[in-house]
Write a structure and sequence with these properties.
Elements lengths: L1 H40 L6 E6 L15 E3 L9 E9 L3 E19 L14 E7 L18 E2 L14 E2 L2 E3 L4 E8 L2 E9 L3 E2 L3 E6 L4 E7 L3 E3 L3
Parallel strand pairs: 9-14
Antiparallel strand pairs: 1-4, 2-3, 3-4, 4-5, 6-7, 8-11, 9-10, 10-12, 12-13, 13-14
C-alpha cells in the first residue's frame, strides 16, 4: 500500500515537469521558425542583422505542431520592432504572434566636417562609421562612391549621416549656357546652337531655345551638348 502511494505521488510530481519540458521544446521550435523567417526576409540588407525575438508563450497553443508556418501580419514590415505570426494548420489549429526587434549594423557615410550647400564633396569631406540603420530615418549612403563627386543640396553638419536625398549629381549644363543641339538618324546628322533654359546633370532632360526661338527638349551630355532623341 505504501509503495502504491509513493508511485502516485511520484507521478503527480513528474507531470508538471513533463509539461514544462514539452512547453520549452515547443517554444524553442517556434522561436527557431521565427528566427529563420526573419533571417530569410533580411538577407538582402547590408551589414550585420541582429535579431532579438521574445520567447513565445506556448500556453496559448493547446497542442504541439508538426509544421508551424511563419507569416508577416498584414501591414507589417520587417524593420525595427514588429511581430511575426506563427500558425498551425494540421491537427492542432492555432495562431500566435512573436514580438521581434532587429538591428542592422553597417558602415554609414557621415560628414567629416561642415559641408556648405552647393559644394561638390571630396574624400576629405566624409568618414565611414558603423551605425544601426534602423535608428537613422531616411535612406543613407553606405558607400563613399555614392557621395564623392556629388553636390550637397543642403548644409551638412559635421558628424551627421549623409542621406541620399541631400545630394545631387553635378550639373554639366547651366541655365543660360550656350549649348550645341545634336540629332542623328539613319543617314543624317544635324547640329545647331541653342540656349539652355535650366541647369541639368548628365542624362537629365533639359529644355533649349534654338536660334529661331523654338523650345526643344533633349538629354544633357557632358561638354555642353544636348542630344535630341528621334
Amino acid at each position: 500500500m505504501k509503495i502504491k502511494f509513493l508511485l502516485i505521488v511520484l507521478v503527480y510530481a513528474l507531470t508538471p515537469m513533463a509539461a514544462t519540458a514539452s512547453e520549452d521544446s515547443s517554444a524553442s521550435t517556434i522561436l527557431e521558425v521565427v528566427n529563420d523567417f526573419v533571417r530569410n526576409e533580411t538577407r538582402h540588407l547590408p551589414g550585420k542583422v541582429i535579431i532579438k525575438s521574445n520567447r513565445p508563450d506556448t500556453r496559448q497553443t493547446p497542442r504541439s505542431c508538426r509544421q508551424p508556418q511563419p507569416f508577416l501580419p498584414t501591414g507589417g514590415r520587417v524593420w525595427g520592432k514588429f511581430s511575426v505570426g506563427v500558425r498551425c494548420q494540421d491537427e492542432a489549429t492555432w495562431t500566435l504572434y512573436v514580438p521581434v526587434e532587429i538591428e542592422v549594423i553597417t558602415r554609414v557615410v557621415h560628414a567629416a566636417q561642415p559641408v556648405s550647400m552647393g559644394k561638390q564633396l571630396e574624400a576629405q569631406d566624409i568618414v565611414s562609421k558603423e551605425a544601426d540603420l534602423v535608428r537613422i530615418p531616411g535612406e543613407v549612403a553606405t558607400d563613399p562612391d555614392q557621395v564623392i563627386g556629388k553636390v550637397a543640396t543642403t548644409f551638412l553638419a559635421s558628424g551627421q549621416p549623409i542621406r541620399t536625398h541631400q545630394l545631387r549629381a553635378p550639373h554639366v549644363i547651366s541655365r543660360g549656357q550656350k549649348v550645341r543641339l545634336t540629332a542623328t538618324g539613319a543617314g543624317f546628322a544635324v547640329s545647331m546652337e541653342g540656349e539652355a533654359l535650366a541647369a541639368a546633370a548628365a542624362g537629365e532632360v533639359v529644355q533649349v531655345r534654338n536660334h529661331t526661338g523654338r523650345i526643344i527638349r533633349g538629354i544633357a551630355r557632358a561638354g555642353g551638348v544636348v542630344e535630341i532623341k528621334q
